[in-house]
Structure to design on (153 residues):
């Protein structure tokens, strides 16, 4: 196995009160719904200097499509409310060029909600370019956890 993340990363437990890992993403959180992002909870980020969240669609024919990037989340934060952004955090640019949660649209695709514990705060502005944000997150990741919705309800 070449490349990728080191195997010695600690594991973050990620969950949502709205769906379980492997279940469909509830309709309201898709581009046809009006709710915005789903609520998330996580544990296992102790020792982190900041937390980041990346929501992507790995089934896209054009490679992974990123629907949301949030970084510099306070490391003491362990949950994200429905349609909210943690206070003090920043949002980066998504694949579509927008900043903020871009609700998924493809009903048959899988959507990954990945939480990263980082060993630093990212010195990036709100709206930072996607490639730069993902590169910095990868470079500083000390733990990672994921919740996957297998399609849209």
């Amino acid at each position: 196995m070449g490349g990728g993340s080191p195997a010695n990363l600690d594991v973050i437990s990620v969950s949502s009160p709205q769906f379980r890992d492997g279940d469909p993403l509830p309709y309201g959180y898709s581009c046809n719904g009006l709710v915005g992002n789903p609520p998330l909870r996580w544990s296992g980020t102790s020792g982190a200097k900041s937390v980041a969240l990346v929501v992507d669609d790995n089934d896209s024919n054009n490679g992974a499509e990123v629907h949301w990037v949030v970084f510099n989340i306070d490391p003491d934060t362990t949950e994200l409310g429905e349609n909210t952004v943690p206070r003090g955090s920043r949002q980066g640019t998504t694949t579509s060029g927008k900043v903020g949660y871009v609700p998924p649209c493809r009903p048959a695709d899988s959507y990954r909600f990945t939480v990263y514990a980082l060993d630093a705060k990212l010195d990036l502005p709100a709206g930072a370019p996607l490639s730069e944000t993902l590169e910095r997150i990868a470079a500083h990741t000390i733990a990672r956890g994921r919740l996957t919705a297998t399609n849209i309800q």
